[in-house]
Amino acid sequence: MLAAGIDVKIVSDTLGHSDTRITRDIYQSVLPQVGKNAAEASAKLVPLQRKTEAEEAARKAAKKAKDKAKAEARTKRKGKRKKPKK
């Protein structure tokens, strides 16, 4: 029944199991394809996203600005360091 896609709660009730965990523990290890099918069905629910050119350009601009800010902060810190006396 699980392999046919019937909900685990219905299978559990039909078999007289007191809890769906019993059904899952017994049958899902015997039927690994059921888990694979469930994973594939779940993956189909979440559409893949493709970044638009604008999104990619915005990401690159943000990274460039972040890198520039880091470089400026490093330069500023270097200027504040005391020079050793000779």
Automatic annotation (TrEMBL):
What protein name does the entry list? Answer: Integrase
**Carries keyword Translocase?**
no
Give GO terms for biological process: DNA integration; DNA recombination
Which InterPro entries does the record match to this protein? DNA_brk_join_enz, Integrase-like_cat_sf
Spell out the Basic residues composition-biased ranges. 75-86
Region entry Disordered: which residue ranges?
42-86
Identify a single GO molecular function assigned to this protein: DNA binding
Q: Where is the composition biased (Basic and acidic residues)?
A: 50-59
The answer, when asked if GTP-binding is one of the entry's keywords, is no
Record key words, sorted? DNA recombination
